[in-house]
Design a protein that fits this description.
The complex is a heterodimer of chains A (291) and B (310).
Chain A lengths: L7 H5 L14 H23 L32 H37 L1 H16 L2 H12 L3 H8 L4 H16 L2 H8 L4 H37 L11 H8 L8 H28 L5
Helix pairs in contact in A: 2-3, 2-11, 3-4, 3-6, 3-7, 3-9, 3-10, 3-11, 4-7, 7-9, 8-9, 9-10, 9-11, 10-11
Chain B lengths: L1 H28 L3 H6 L5 H10 L6 H13 L13 H36 L4 H15 L2 H15 L12 H30 L2 H8 L4 H26 L6 H6 L5 H11 L2 H29 L1 H5 L6
Helix pairs in contact in B: 1-13, 5-6, 5-8, 5-13, 6-8, 7-8, 8-10, 9-10, 10-13, 12-13
Classes of the chains: A mainly alpha (291), B mainly alpha (310).
Amino acid sequence: MSDQTLPRTVIDGKAAPRRWPGHDMPLLVRIALLWLVGMVLIALFAPLISPFVYTSPNLRNRLVPPGTFPHIFGTDELGRDVLSRLLISIRISLLIAFGASIISAVLGTTLGFLAAYFRGIVEQVVLMLADFQASMPFLILALSVLAFFGNSLVLLIGLMGLFGWERYARISRGLAISASAQGYASACRQLGASPMRVYLRHILPNIASTLIVSMTLVFPEVILLESGLSFLGLGVQPPMTSLGNMVGYGREYITRAPWIMLAPALTIVSTTLAVSVLGDWLRDKLDPTLR
Amino acid sequence: MLRFIAIRLGRAMITIALVVTFAFIVLRLSGDPAQIILGPEAPPEAVAAFRKAWGLDDPLWLQYFHYFGAIIQGELGRSMRDGRAAIELVAERIPVTLALTLPALAIKIGLGIPAGIYAALHRGSLADRVVMMLSVAGFTIPSFVLGLTLVLIFAVKLGWLPSGGQDSWRHAILPVLTLGIGGAAVLARFTRSAMLEVLGQPFIRTASAKGVPWRDVIVGHALPNAAIPTVTIVGFMIGTLIAGAVVVESVFSWPGVGRLLVVAVANRDLAVVQCILLLVAATMVTSNLVVDFLYGFLDPRLRQNPGKAS
């Protein structure tokens, strides 16, 4: 977002001591990073730190407002602790988002590399599929697959993993074509490296920064998509819970107990916002061509 | 120009064919269609009769061929729930959805494009920052959160508007706002970056250097050039008029196509799902076609050399 591209070390004129690469991070980016680190820690340790078992009902403590000990975030319509459910939801939602982002990045990059290596008909097919994927609203495709196959967590992650692959495919194809024309790639080839080796060991590291930046653009969309599906009751199924799922069930109690849906809703918004802020900063930092 | 139209039409056909293929593959992969449609308790004779009637014992390529033929003839199957033709069920929901999405589209265009242009022309100003901030918010806030927040404020706390249903025009206000605000933010961001890109071009500098008044530079040179990327995203929005309100319709219990889709998915009413899928594909393809022709109209270079367009 900032327009300054000159590194400060150049202006100082001094040889900069080796510093942490994020030393000139703006405050907002630091907060975003901190938030995301917190989210990941919560996701990893959710079952250990949640004060109650997230599925255990307590019918004598239904709809307790937040701020009451021991239910700091209140309880829901079955008397389940909202904080515990929130922590587990963060774990499930992040698991799906990370799993799906990795699948889609690997799938897209592989197809992009195949297109760049074989050119011709393979390239045309990959580009056609990418056009098709980009022109259909993903939510509708996802809903139809869920209608045909029913639902499970594995299927959901796999399905979300199809989201956004076309962007990686287009980017990696374009970059790989221009990279393989460069000296280092042909040098490797002349030395007898196999195409696998050239693409994975030499070209991939060179274009990784651009791919990572696109990942920060796709990641929040995956979170939004999963939470949307779960909100509709067609994503993560009870008794498992996810952020969208909590909002979906919480909305029934929006007049009497708005806290049930507010906590997960705020978490979704803050997390997608944090990834976007971090992604914008990374994009300015790593890849000026994408701006 | 003829070549240009032919290439575009060909692509549109391919996309539709891909969607039909997708539906066919998914339908066949999901299990025996006879069992799914007739239910698990169907007697074996009925299943056998169904398989024979629908040609399920034929080789796969022949089935695919027949499936394709049936869809071209508009035979989209019947709803499992009440036996009505799926296309009829969907058709009666379309106007209901359009009652939300058309006014929302007007808000998106009427609010988003001017805001984006203004922000680009006053880059770095307070207004620009506000527009950018709102557009980031529009991107990161999911529509159901925005919708429920509006319900919480205007229906629960203030009691000004109903929170759901479809009884009067007042019921449409909150869903239209929810759809419109989010879309306007996205459009503003696109328009802004398209404008900024054009404003950095040499021909803008040339125009202002030769003494064209700034106003005319903007209206005559910058806006037409910035229109091309903006038209793309507006085209995408037009393509989602029918199925772009799935989540918002659910938030506000609005009985449109999106609500029908969600219910059909939950009940595994495959004919209805498939019908909506094809309908959405057809609208997307049509709006993409219109956008492509608009490109040709807006940018003469693409008419001359259609291979470069994409």
